[in-house]
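Hey L., structure's done. Input below.
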Amino acid sequence: MVSQQRPQIHVFPVLGSRTVCKAQNTGVCLNVNPSRAGGAYGYVDMGGWVGGQAEYVLVPYADFNLLKFPDRDQAMSKIRDLTCLSDILPTGYHGAVMAGVKPGSTVYIAGAGPVGMAAAASARLLGAACTIVGDMNEGRLAHARKVGFEVVDLSKDATLSEQIAAILGTPEVDCAVDCVGFEAHGHGSTGSHEEAPATVLNSLMEITRVAGAIGIPGLYVTDDPGAADAAAKKGALSIRFGLGWAKSHSFFTGQTPVMKYNQNLMQAILWDRLPIADIVNVSVVTLDQAPDGYRQFDGGAPRKFVIDPHGMLKAA
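Output:
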């Protein structure tokens, strides 16, 4: 009697979009944008969506990604804070988490814009002992100081390490967060104010202790046609990777997986643990006022403009 052996069939798993989302990596969704991984609508060069700053908005996959507030009246009483859940707060929080912020940490946040201030607020929520925010904008630094953070002024000739040492007694921090991205500019009063996209990353490697982590929620692009040099136009940066390697740094990059955090951040807001609207200085404007809001923001205004096309926030 001859036995027949069944052929061996090997099935290799494929990491599909469903698996990515179940793993809470919604920032690299494989369905939203056919040309590349990414969980955004109308964001930079991702997909054919037209963006969301309008009177009415089509929300693709809304059955999956909308966040339901537990109580309408409670939510409307804190709606200025809750609007930050759509973007800047999870982004700043992601940077702080990926940098390994924990109770007692010393943290440096590069950038005092809305995402930088959200990262600083997140570091405080996570228990950081000292959070330092760096920028070249005097108004933004004044606001960061007003809401309780240490600051360094990158327009000064004193180096970042020297200014951190003046605060902490040591020129290094436990971890750092890049909330500037490829639009960074040179430091110092005599430095170039043209874009220098690797400046922040190189400075963070200098001031982050050995075996520390660097969270990078700041935007970096695959192509930058307006960049000053040929390499940067292709998304290539002059990074001192050898320094990061020698110091055993961990780098965490990428678009934020908002759904990984927004439920807990919502609760932190509703239970008065996170006054984010005050920290990022939310200013509510109408749709007609949006162009002026853009002009102010481009000019470095220390505030986050929230568009309220139907007056719902004003009514609340």
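The chain has three domains: 12-47, 75-81+275-315, 84-258. Residues 75-81+275-315 form one domain.

-- N.
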